[in-house]
Batch of 2 targets.
Target 1
Amino acid sequence: MAPLEIPKLAVGDRVQHELLVREREDKVTKAGDPFLTLKLGNATGVLGANVWKEMVPQVQGVRPGQVVQVIGVVEEYAGRRQLKLTAPPRVVPMGGADIEQFLPRITVPEERLWAKIDAWRAEMHGPLRRAVDLFFADESFRAEFARTPGATRGHHALVGGLLLHTCEVADIARASAQTMGGNVTLVTAGALLHDIGKTKTYTVDLAGFDYTRAGMLLQHIVLGSLMLEERLRTLPPQDQLSDEQRLELHHFIQSHHGQLEFGAAVRPMTLEAEILHFADNTSAKGNDFTEAVEDAELFPSAELEFSAKRSWRLERRVWKRSHRWD
Amino acid sequence: MAPLEIPKLAVGDRVQHELLVREREDKVTKAGDPFLTLKLGNATGVLGANVWKEMVPQVQGVRPGQVVQVIGVVEEYAGRRQLKLTAPPRVVPMGGADIEQFLPRITVPEERLWAKIDAWRAEMHGPLRRAVDLFFADESFRAEFARTPGATRGHHALVGGLLLHTCEVADIARASAQTMGGNVTLVTAGALLHDIGKTKTYTVDLAGFDYTRAGMLLQHIVLGSLMLEERLRTLPPQDQLSDEQRLELHHFIQSHHGQLEFGAAVRPMTLEAEILHFADNTSAKGNDFTEAVEDAELFPSAELEFSAKRSWRLERRVWKRSHRWD
Amino acid sequence: MAPLEIPKLAVGDRVQHELLVREREDKVTKAGDPFLTLKLGNATGVLGANVWKEMVPQVQGVRPGQVVQVIGVVEEYAGRRQLKLTAPPRVVPMGGADIEQFLPRITVPEERLWAKIDAWRAEMHGPLRRAVDLFFADESFRAEFARTPGATRGHHALVGGLLLHTCEVADIARASAQTMGGNVTLVTAGALLHDIGKTKTYTVDLAGFDYTRAGMLLQHIVLGSLMLEERLRTLPPQDQLSDEQRLELHHFIQSHHGQLEFGAAVRPMTLEAEILHFADNTSAKGNDFTEAVEDAELFPSAELEFSAKRSWRLERRVWKRSHRWD
Amino acid sequence: MAPLEIPKLAVGDRVQHELLVREREDKVTKAGDPFLTLKLGNATGVLGANVWKEMVPQVQGVRPGQVVQVIGVVEEYAGRRQLKLTAPPRVVPMGGADIEQFLPRITVPEERLWAKIDAWRAEMHGPLRRAVDLFFADESFRAEFARTPGATRGHHALVGGLLLHTCEVADIARASAQTMGGNVTLVTAGALLHDIGKTKTYTVDLAGFDYTRAGMLLQHIVLGSLMLEERLRTLPPQDQLSDEQRLELHHFIQSHHGQLEFGAAVRPMTLEAEILHFADNTSAKGNDFTEAVEDAELFPSAELEFSAKRSWRLERRVWKRSHRWD
Amino acid sequence: MAPLEIPKLAVGDRVQHELLVREREDKVTKAGDPFLTLKLGNATGVLGANVWKEMVPQVQGVRPGQVVQVIGVVEEYAGRRQLKLTAPPRVVPMGGADIEQFLPRITVPEERLWAKIDAWRAEMHGPLRRAVDLFFADESFRAEFARTPGATRGHHALVGGLLLHTCEVADIARASAQTMGGNVTLVTAGALLHDIGKTKTYTVDLAGFDYTRAGMLLQHIVLGSLMLEERLRTLPPQDQLSDEQRLELHHFIQSHHGQLEFGAAVRPMTLEAEILHFADNTSAKGNDFTEAVEDAELFPSAELEFSAKRSWRLERRVWKRSHRWD
Amino acid sequence: MAPLEIPKLAVGDRVQHELLVREREDKVTKAGDPFLTLKLGNATGVLGANVWKEMVPQVQGVRPGQVVQVIGVVEEYAGRRQLKLTAPPRVVPMGGADIEQFLPRITVPEERLWAKIDAWRAEMHGPLRRAVDLFFADESFRAEFARTPGATRGHHALVGGLLLHTCEVADIARASAQTMGGNVTLVTAGALLHDIGKTKTYTVDLAGFDYTRAGMLLQHIVLGSLMLEERLRTLPPQDQLSDEQRLELHHFIQSHHGQLEFGAAVRPMTLEAEILHFADNTSAKGNDFTEAVEDAELFPSAELEFSAKRSWRLERRVWKRSHRWD
């Protein structure tokens, strides 16, 4: 069965699908009656549901991280679509199911992003190509890379987020290098490799995204260099990178956060490393902005021009332009 | 007479040209004899000259900021080309002369940059086009803009530096907006306008670049908004921008330094303003890198792989890659 | 009908007046019954009221920002005076009413402050007088200035707060200039003009104080300079200020926050600008202290010598001296 | 013999006086000849002198910190008055001499400042008066206080500087307390006591101002509280301050630097302590400004409108207004 | 009656003891019924108890800071031991009772710590011994010192915490001085004296630990020097310390926080003062770690390897190692 | 020939030995004559020599980094011993010579330090021992480790400095762990491994200490983890560390700088990692102090009690205690 396309639901639509319980909050009405709110979602989006007093006993066992069979109808409540359950949700055992169909996911097709990466790889030659291919020509790495989020919360916290972020960084870094006289191919390789450590930093399961033990104790920058070093060592002797080349790739990884207080081991020491750093920031903060103007917590009402409070990711209030320029 | 092309001079070439005295330093040899070093330049570059004991009395009146008639021959000294004076330099009165031919200047042809700007303008319509044209369709503003440096010292401190920097920022911001789903035309207008205040912030004369009184007391960000407001007011009533549009253009100017401690009045509150901020940084720091690897103070010997000291502009040492990737 | 003088109410007084609903909080008693607390106020002060279970249904429609007709009697509850409603409050339509009588307001008579300002203006001559009079001799500006708060929350967040703060700053700056050998008249002009931008930064209505769009996007410092420039341009040619004079007035506005990280475009570069900066701080922080020792959230019980928690405005705990020195 | 009034000297005046050698710098002319520059001064000011090759052997023993008998005539050199020695300076033994007549000193008469302090004391009663009088009614403390500088270098680094600074702080704090509704008499006492520890922090001798051992190891804030505690203990039992009163006086001393990073042990917790802190800053920074515009290192030429470099005390460039407002 | 040994209680044990009410939290069940949770403790530890709807009216008067007679049985709830009350707790009047038996207390026997201190004192001679003995040979000081906590909340917030912390600091500082070639005996004296001011900074009563007025207004560092100075003055003339010695002891106290922003009046200027500073930090942060891994708020479930959130004391998440190394 | 023991030289001693030229400075006397100062040294210390006008031509080719044959006699000059050359120094070709005998070296015998390390290793068992022995049971690693300095300049910038620093850190960390209840053996392993990356970070040759390319681009913390990972991989399968064990060793390396802004990839998350961090600081800063009080630049005269200026390593002035405590 095709997954429910949540963004396309209209008031009155009937729903009978499996959805992931993302959040559950138990509350009491002003009249003293227990009720609870659920956030239910799949890869396409999230939908809220209020469970009133009568049905509360029947959802006692429902917890975040479970997949439930939901039967209901879409209604409007306080200006937003939500789900009215017409039957209690039923927990679905997830033994062999495809977990990722229930997790939030990027909306850009993965294939389009891989096509870009493969085209960029095709521009590369010699040692640079060999180094990049150690990861990006390896199907198992590609699979892992494509499911990793960009963060546990914050920018690109989606299945596929790392893949999308990497392509955005490469796009921006390439344009910057073109303009500033840098080495476009080299900075592309830097962009592809800069966050590889995140594949060993985050866990992806129905309970959401979290840190691995290695991610907690070492963070993705160190893990990236350990991964790079491990694979570089597998190259046959005649294909080994020179010392300078090897160190330059590590330097991209180690310096891409720009400053020590943001976790960089060193500050960027080349034009290309500096460009990569700014491209990384532009993708991350740009994504924070595009998500902020869609965020119902920041804009609880449709008339608001400025967010009702500060975005914790951007540490400032955000302007949702209401005028047009054309 | 065509200006001397300093970068093309070879050992043995004879020089008989007018050059600007950029620096003068009086010294004493280990043997106790007075001598002095001059830095002589024009728009194409700079050349050093040592003046020994015998000729010292004849250059007593020569000071930085003067144009002198120089006669000499190019020789090599300590691995660098320098000028051996064969006659004392003679000061040239600069009454009506074209000052700018003696000042350091960008190497990109100005026309190519204007062509880019005019093509970007052609993409714009309605109020955005009208606002941008208030400046960029005005010949006297264009002339002033084209001679202004990007700074008194530091990145783009060249005649034409502001023009070059503005184009770089626009290039990078456009690519970033394209990738991140922003309004490309709008961010281009923001890029064109973000530094207009610098035309009233810096002085350009033979003594070098300096601050105007307004530049010292208010800085270029405030001056930019005062200029924008002044010109916007000249639009006929039917062409006036809406309040939102007017404020958004000011917001680009006021937020482009990103953080208050770097002089922004406010932090960027839109995707486009955030993108402009990072593009501005990428152009500035990128230029710092391309100049650092050419800087004889940072790399006093050709064998150095790392700069001998920190670049004051980048606050770190810089790596001049000696290896090749192709 | 004269407004109710809230600070003078005694236990047992009867109240039958129109009051503004400042806050409403819905709660549940330990016994599970719904109740709610209201904060009701006018220009003279604020009074709390608890609405118990029985009356809750009758106040369902009452919301902050509404004016209500209140009938009740003053009683004591937990050591504080509060209102016991004897009838449900009734919402009053506010079409043409005088909004400001319901908003929190400074207690100093406005006239006394204007008298000070006008006496200071009388000391000024020539261009300084002309510049100051562009604002302070304009009745419509005076009216707007007198109703603007000093902030949306924090120091001087009252109708008239900007007027009071401006007079305090001028008082302190004048004494400082007198002591330190500065120009007393000039610093007075700086004080009068330093916060004029706030008239375009804040909105004043029954829902409380908030930011205008211009205030959010540009902040009051930039708006102040735009306003100053606009009015200066209206002076007849023979009355124009010199370039130095014009820039010095802008410099007061742009530097009065002292440091870039607090929003100044430049640091103060003259004795008078530095004095203005410290006088501004003294007024703001001094007001924070006088309000803190009156704040029931900081001093929830009368015996407390030290505030129960940090004041968010002062970022520290505050001492309410219990001893006497005389 | 009355001391030479250095600020009143005119070109051509003959000098035959004892002066303190403030600085000596040995140099070599461009022609390779040794020469040296002296800075000679007394309480009224400083005068430079160049000693040329011929007289160099006769001044070999002259060193900073010595008093010398000087014979010469005032001449003009590079736009500044300086002394032309007509005989070699002769070192004067300083056994019992009055050292202070040779040190830089405030120009305000000391008596005028004491009159202010004594008038303020007369306003005080009871424990406050007793505490203040423990210091300011003690002749030996007054003598020590009157000769102490405000700092070893920086603001008020003059004999009498502490006395002048204390009066400035009290003046400004009183006006601020008047305006903000604080206790004027109490804040005056705080001002008088806040820097008493400086009398044990600095040394004053012909070699200039320096730190005592206690000043280096503990700084003036701790020393102030130790001194206050020591004297308070000498009060007879019936005159003892209450615990609150005693702690409040210590709190003024301990909090007057405002923030921990500037050496305060605690942040100000009362209106009066906060006011004292800002008054202290206003006096210190105000003095930095009045000295900066007179400083020949910052303004090496009379035409300069902006200082040629940053003032290290103010960490910024300074504007010397060239226009008039009247 | 011996106090109840809370850490040794097993499920099923009966409790009939006096315990201190540490916390009380009133809540409502999902079904709308009131209930409350108590934290009850004595010197050996803390035990939770839930009071359900039926018994709520009988505990209305029970508040934190009271000692109550408790009757109940130990049961298991959500994986943790807690107390099931079988009768309502009864408030015990605390007139002359020994308060400290109810407060949280260090588990190391006090005697063992005093034995260490006395052995260290025995190593000292001459002025160092005399200075240390002014405090540590004084029974009333010892009693006060032994009951003072190390902080009101945070590291060593226990009766006896100051004593334990002081011994830890001395232990670490001695080892460091031994290794780095410092004066072991001197640094021991510095360790013993560094926090003496805390005895006048904190209050200890059944309501928990809090600040004294002097502690709020001056903090423990200043108070320490005032105490030291007061006692040093009592030495007979022939036993007085030299000026250097006296200042060095004060310097230990004033510099032990290392940096001004953490409350030090001066930075450490000797090897021994620097060592003391790091030893102080090691004890404080080390204690934060040992308490963090035992903290049920940080590790709400036994399977957690990383704390569920940041420790506010350490400002980071903490790893509870689950593996073994032996 | 045994190396010259520089610290034992007395005035009048004859010198005829090979010494390394550490520094050369060319100067001109006041009389205009050229002269130069040399600093000559070996592993035991450094000695200055002035070369006067007559001998200057004969030392033209002498440069820092060369070993020269020196003939002269020890004399006293300005209160310090220095060398009077009686013959021009002769450059010695250094083809196969033992470079390290000429470099500054720790004074503690290397053997004593290795004995400590080997005793600590003997305490370890199982995986911890295996991991440590991968480095410290490898003779070639030991040789490299023993010649590496602790830094290029600053603390422990000596041949053997890394070995000494490592032992100091282990000593202090062991005592701290003992006191705070940590795992002593584990923290010892952390101490031994924390700086292994420095062996690949610094170069050691006659020109002094410098950075390797890898050291510049990645710094020692990353290099340490790369080295650890590389060697761990060589363990036979049955001897492999568990994932937790492996990550904990990396965590020691990555967190030992304590805070991100000082280069740590993560903050310490265990008691042992925190202890290691403070022990590292104590050794580094303690060494700064012991060297500061011996530093002739900080204490140019023997009477000084406080350093004449700030130590750049400690960022403060230093007190050289002149009194005794025993």
Note: The longest helix of chain A spans residues 271-292.
Target 2
Amino acid sequence: MKPEIKSALMGVTTATLTTVLLKKGVRFCYVNGARPIVPGNFTRIVGPAFTLRFTPTREDLATVDSWSSPRSTRAAIEDMPEGCVAIADAMGLTTAGIFGDILCARMRVKGVAGLVTDGMVRDGQGVIGTGLPVFCQGYVAPASVAALNFVGWQETIGCGGVTVVPGDIVVADGDGAVVIPQAMLEAVTEAAVEQERLEGWIMKEVNKGLALPGLYPANAEHKARYEADKAAGRA
Amino acid sequence: MKPEIKSALMGVTTATLTTVLLKKGVRFCYVNGARPIVPGNFTRIVGPAFTLRFTPTREDLATVDSWSSPRSTRAAIEDMPEGCVAIADAMGLTTAGIFGDILCARMRVKGVAGLVTDGMVRDGQGVIGTGLPVFCQGYVAPASVAALNFVGWQETIGCGGVTVVPGDIVVADGDGAVVIPQAMLEAVTEAAVEQERLEGWIMKEVNKGLALPGLYPANAEHKARYEADKAAGRA
Amino acid sequence: MKPEIKSALMGVTTATLTTVLLKKGVRFCYVNGARPIVPGNFTRIVGPAFTLRFTPTREDLATVDSWSSPRSTRAAIEDMPEGCVAIADAMGLTTAGIFGDILCARMRVKGVAGLVTDGMVRDGQGVIGTGLPVFCQGYVAPASVAALNFVGWQETIGCGGVTVVPGDIVVADGDGAVVIPQAMLEAVTEAAVEQERLEGWIMKEVNKGLALPGLYPANAEHKARYEADKAAGRA
Amino acid sequence: MKPEIKSALMGVTTATLTTVLLKKGVRFCYVNGARPIVPGNFTRIVGPAFTLRFTPTREDLATVDSWSSPRSTRAAIEDMPEGCVAIADAMGLTTAGIFGDILCARMRVKGVAGLVTDGMVRDGQGVIGTGLPVFCQGYVAPASVAALNFVGWQETIGCGGVTVVPGDIVVADGDGAVVIPQAMLEAVTEAAVEQERLEGWIMKEVNKGLALPGLYPANAEHKARYEADKAAGRA
Amino acid sequence: MKPEIKSALMGVTTATLTTVLLKKGVRFCYVNGARPIVPGNFTRIVGPAFTLRFTPTREDLATVDSWSSPRSTRAAIEDMPEGCVAIADAMGLTTAGIFGDILCARMRVKGVAGLVTDGMVRDGQGVIGTGLPVFCQGYVAPASVAALNFVGWQETIGCGGVTVVPGDIVVADGDGAVVIPQAMLEAVTEAAVEQERLEGWIMKEVNKGLALPGLYPANAEHKARYEADKAAGRA
Amino acid sequence: MKPEIKSALMGVTTATLTTVLLKKGVRFCYVNGARPIVPGNFTRIVGPAFTLRFTPTREDLATVDSWSSPRSTRAAIEDMPEGCVAIADAMGLTTAGIFGDILCARMRVKGVAGLVTDGMVRDGQGVIGTGLPVFCQGYVAPASVAALNFVGWQETIGCGGVTVVPGDIVVADGDGAVVIPQAMLEAVTEAAVEQERLEGWIMKEVNKGLALPGLYPANAEHKARYEADKAAGRA
């Protein structure tokens, strides 16, 4: 993705992105259940989606030996480009962790921007220790094969109620993760940057004591004041 | 699949199959939520799995126009061979039906053995009217695109907690649907047929008034009696 | 509501209505959990919504004495006009029944078209015996006050994931219940009647053996054939 | 239990029992999830509770061999007295059936009044075929050991949100199952019989066209009319 | 509310309040799901309930334009008196936030004591930054209109399984939020203050090494000791 | 338990234990829902299980008076040996806390190693203040009797999807709690210690920049290197 787009999105909250996407007709863009692994961490990540797909475990398929097969999570990780956001469909399961500290450490070494899943990771302390930004439902002890079977990567997936196509843009912060369809990236970014600026100005007005009706959303009078402030470099 | 295997499995309950699979090390073989569309219908279907995969709806992808695309449920249905069991990963969603009466009518015309899903169908009366055996969570009014996005067919899927690989064997009856890994088909069928025979004999003994301990599971004495009855054509 | 609208809607499935509403921009119109009290009953009801609202039980409010108060379910029922569809927000609770046989019998006597709820009724045999069409999650033994507190009637409510404003139109059949916003009634009815006619024609084509691509949705060629058949009174 | 109590309770709905128990201070008496195995069957059973307890499966405990142990479901069944209602804590799990057709057939032969569980049974067709009244969440294929470990019998259990002490009275019908604490049995039965009588009289009044306020609950005037009718043998 | 009542309740845990309310016959007083927005924050708030009600989103009602209507969340906030606790029925939905940082900032400016909801807020970092005490299920990115439709304020609502009447008293702390029916306020406060004092004394005894039986609950001997200590100013 | 086993397990993560148990055939060993009461606390506890069992509340059984009975949680606590891990089956309920600060303080005084439950505790601030390590779903205000009835102790229980037999070994840390069947204790401990050592070595290799395939799981070449490093005291 273009550096200026990435840089612009680093300054936009996922809350703003969902509002902009809703106005542009996309309601299903928010990944339910993907929370920062350290609660209250508001760091943001931005990057193109690298998808991973799991199905339920099956004793003849999801064996410990499968970890050595060419179609394994290990092989998928080696295929991840620098700067991507790995996003994994774990069917929302909370009974096993998709990755532990070793896999996350390797992703960190490779420069992966972060990991997003509607499921869990495992070995929470170790994963946090790698410094890889992870957005998930939490961490549990059981290994992936206890509940999950790895199928493949870079396929269209569902994750937390959102369809993700490889190459869509993922933005995640303290409020969770949002998927921007690739074709809408520039329009969404532009509108979001402006929305952030406007809301920052409104917030200041509220803190001055202004009442909400007419201000948020802004009516003609307040909009004019905002435009004036913007022109004068005050918003 | 071989006709004699199919014919043997038509005489075996899914209850027996899960027990046989568990003894052979496969616990994750039962499709949660797939019930006969007419409650209390105990008709059985058997056939190789033809898989379908859905992800969550997304306004730019799951459009009414997408129904005309080459990668549509319509195209998938035209690709189904006679005798297969269509099995669809609908992520267990109950808020939209994957297929309605027209699609089911086409499947019926093409000789599809049945439809299994962890989700819903729609236009229940119409679907039942086609005569296609359907195993699902029920029927609702909303169309698939209200909640689902069709991705493709003949991929490995998860359905109701089971991983299904195209070509696995699906057996469904009043107790639900079971997936037999292709490589285990003959061994499972043989063991299941014998298990049914033994349980039929035990049931007669119970109805004669015998107590359960020692009989079910059968101890050496009862096993000998069963073998004798079997040899004599009485079991 | 106009008799010709009601009569037209009596011939349209809820499945068709959800498709028409989705095309007109309303996705949230289907009442999750409201099923015919007798499974497999496909009788349809149509009528303006008469809303009822419950909150959770509270020992000082939801007393047996509250049944005699002026703000009781009893008073609400006496206020129901003939032909309305009573629709009750029970917060989807399955642990108590909102109404039993006596209240349903009174509704039946008053000519209420039916009862729709996202919760339960109680005394299933008695309620079925009254002949009142009821759409609910099922029936349980406990009385409303065991889990619910009645608040009032003819307010805006949520029911099974849909907002219902008094005077919206409710249509319910074997596939569940759909809410049509009052302002869209005529446009939705007109489009739905045409959609039913077209789908009836397509179903006949499928039963003749036609493949789905191009037929459903119909391409220009098939559309022309349909229009010709319609003009000739054959669709 | 005394035959006259049993006979009286055979004429009382579980709906009435929950109302009577609530008035006497017991709100937690209804077994969530226990439905007649054949939907719409309104046959009633009454009997003292014979409890069974399951915990989650564990591979070293819930083996197929465990079915032959002295602490098995088989041994428990042999211990059941005629006329009891077997009630099993299956933790509400829907992924395995606690009993199949052979165990239910043995219970039927022994004169057990019925089986109540917050979980599932298996081999639905076979279980229905035994004629044993069963109240459960439904039937699935997997055997108990796939998800459950049998612990013992005649202990205090929880079942569907109700604590059941061996010897409590279980009444089950189309609306589900209710547990009457043993010490309250006579008082509850007496009040319930009277309540049924009164509600039968009110139902007739409603069918004559009377309005609900004042009638249900009955005010002084209506109560006097009821008492007069009762004295005259008309209620 | 009287300042001395408020001040007394500021010294009482919600845990103690639920016990006192249970003893006085009110079991349904605890708001499920309302947690401090910063986990582990044990700050307490007390104030009269100012209620807000949401229903599910509907595209023709819950528009971005609706934010400017006279019946909007903005108008409701302007109507909130200083010291009230805003409590919002969001139907327990976790897919959209009812309020973001701007609305919470305005509430803070107006002197609202806090916000309680069974749902979510959005823009977690911004909301926490306002300093308004918030009790909710967490924070997500999507705006209210993605899932919710605002109906009105100062109506009776259900929130997290509790019915709240405007004017009831809400107390919230690290253990969640409790609703005290207005009529019971003084009696509950008095009993709760005494209960806290007694439990503080018991805690000291436990830390001295005393065993629990006889001490908690206190038998006659321990009660006498407590009364003596209280009289002597040691409890 | 032997001090050297306890000491060895204090150095092993629950993540490693679940992998070792899975390889030895035990999949059902992880307690769903038991999390450190202070999120992000990674302290570990190890000890033999002392079990507690709850069923749903019932007004005639779960009274405040029951707290003084010989079969009370108080009596159970007095029976707990030093070093045990109390593990309570609360049926996963989140609507009441099993223990508050006073009971936890007593457990702390008695030297109990920690408390594990699939439910909740209450008075979170007070419980945390006692210093007792607690693993639970969280803390809420309501007392146990609001939702739970205490049955007894040192029985076989289910907790968070695991069967626990008194004397099994419980290990809990930031990833949750694992139950080791008593008979497998030594074999599991030995394998786990070796697994931790190997994974520590692999982690270092990953941090040096090695790719995952062949390394994790280790192929023959890497295994030889590990063994050499181990022999040389470098792993």
Note: The mean pLDDT of chain F is 96.
